[in-house]
Each structure stands twice: as C-alpha cells, then as structure tokens.
Design the sequence.
C-alpha cells in the first residue's frame, strides 16, 4: 500500500482497535482478579465456618466429658484396684495351699533321689521280669459298664414285645 490519506485512516483505525483490545484485556484481568478475590473471601468464610463448627463440637464434647467425669471418683477406682489386687493375692494363696503336698518335704534334691534310685537298683535283682508297680503301662480296667450306644435310634413297633426281664446295668 502506498503512503497517503487512505493508509493513514487505516492506520488510525488499527491503532484504535489495538487500544480497545488492550482496554478489554485490562478489564478482563481486572474482572478475573475481582473474581479471584471473591472466591478467596468465600473460601476464607468457609474456613471460618468450619473452624467455628469444630470449636463448637469441641466445646460440646468438653462439657459432656466434664459432666461424665463428675460421676467418676478416682479414689474409688484406686480402692477397687487395691481390692482386686488383694483378692488376687488371696486366690493365689488358696491355690498354693490347695496344691501343697503333705507327704513330700519341700527340700528334696533331684540328684539325691537319683543317687538313691541307682543304689536301690543295684541291691534289687528283678530277674527277667519287672514288678508290676514299676511298669509304665496302665493296668487293664475290668469292664463294668455296658457298651456305649451307636447313635442309631429304633422306633418300637407293635410286634415287638417288651423283654420279660430287664438286663442289669452293670455286668461283672
């Protein structure tokens, strides 16, 4: 394009458009900043509301705990703990008394017992067979009780007659 009045008019219009563009961009940036500021204010308000709710919940819990602890007597808890310890000591003492052996002295030494057993073993001659009281096997128990039921149940029928005599419960 040649220099002249047309070119100058177009140049002036282009400058106005650029100036408007810059103005619109500045307004957009200003509106974005205002929007950000409003969002920040809303966020801060929400934080304050949440903080207030948390604080109120903590106060309510504090009041409830104080009310509950008014019913708690720490001295009573100590007394119960002491009483429980005394009862446990008594129970242990009873168990020791019940487990006391009357025939065995408390000062038996395993080594002395082993030495005495070895000495007795040398003096006694058992031959080929050991006495029954030294065997580890349990003695056979006589069968005094009837056999255990097998778990099946039979319904009596009309044709089944009752036995004339009941069997004794114990067989010898």
Sequence:
């Amino acid at each position: 394009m040649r220099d002249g009045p047309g070119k100058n008019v177009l140049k002036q219009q282009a400058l106005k458009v650029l100036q408007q563009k810059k103005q619109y961009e500045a307004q957009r940036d200003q509106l974005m900043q205002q929007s950000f500021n409003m969002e920040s204010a809303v966020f801060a308000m929400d934080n304050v509301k949440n903080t207030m709710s948390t604080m109120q919940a903590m106060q309510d819990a504090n009041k409830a705990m104080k009310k509950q602890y008014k019913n708690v007597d720490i001295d009573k808890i100590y007394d119960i703990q002491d009483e429980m310890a005394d009862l446990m000591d008594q129970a242990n003492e009873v168990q020791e008394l019940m487990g006391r052996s009357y025939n065995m002295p408390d000062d038996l030494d395993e080594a002395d017992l082993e030495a005495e057993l070895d000495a007795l073993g040398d003096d006694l001659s058992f031959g080929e067979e050991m006495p029954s009281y030294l065997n580890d096997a349990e003695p056979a128990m006589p069968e005094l009780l009837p056999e255990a039921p097998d778990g099946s149940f039979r319904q009596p029928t009309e044709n089944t007659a009752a036995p004339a005599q009941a069997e004794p419960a114990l067989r010898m």
